[in-house]
Amino acid sequence: MQSRREVQRERSRGTSKRMIRDLLILIILIFLVGWSIYAVGNHPKAEAERQATTIAKRYANLKTRTDFYIYNRENTYYTVAGKNNKGQRILVIVPQKNGSVRVVKQSTGLTEQQALAQVKSNEHPKRVLKAVPGIFNDKVVWEVTYLNSKGNLCYDLINFKTGSYVQQINNL
């Protein structure tokens, strides 16, 4: 016959095991829900990237992809950066909806780093958020998004070929 203490210890061990099991189930459920939300939320971007890359391979002989950008202004454009079959660095700009695919050699204009350096030099941002290529007024541009010294959101559009400012939107 077991003493009361032994019975209490066994119950205590059973309760501890159940708590550990329940905690593990909860952690697994949280992970699965988080992963599901991420997968569903990221699906449109992943699909756009896949389609733009396929188009870039077909129309611009893209061989290696180095980057992918999404530009949202008047229209949405997906840009695939990489090298073509001649080893030239290119940007392939694909409109989300109607329009023609544009292929530009990166050597004919500003690089992402040059556009960023220009904004940093001229505007002294607190933090740069992103730089993406796109089309504005039928010209290829770099859109640099940053927080100014006051912490306000700003957008600078820089002409890809000339490096001149096309538009600046400050203090949003």
From TrEMBL:
<dbReference type="Pfam" id="PF03413">
    <property type="entry name" value="PepSY"/>
</dbReference>
<feature type="domain" description="Cell wall elongation regulator TseB-like">
    <location>
        <begin position="51"/>
        <end position="95"/>
    </location>
</feature>
<keyword id="KW-1133">Transmembrane helix</keyword>
<protein>
    <submittedName>
        <fullName>Peptidase</fullName>
    </submittedName>
</protein>
<dbReference type="Pfam" id="PF17881">
    <property type="entry name" value="TseB"/>
</dbReference>
<dbReference type="InterPro" id="IPR041401">
    <property type="entry name" value="TseB-like_dom"/>
</dbReference>
<dbReference type="InterPro" id="IPR025711">
    <property type="entry name" value="PepSY"/>
</dbReference>
<keyword id="KW-0472">Membrane</keyword>
<dbReference type="InterPro" id="IPR046350">
    <property type="entry name" value="Cystatin_sf"/>
</dbReference>
<feature type="transmembrane region" description="Helical">
    <location>
        <begin position="20"/>
        <end position="41"/>
    </location>
</feature>
<keyword id="KW-0812">Transmembrane</keyword>
<feature type="domain" description="PepSY">
    <location>
        <begin position="110"/>
        <end position="163"/>
    </location>
</feature>
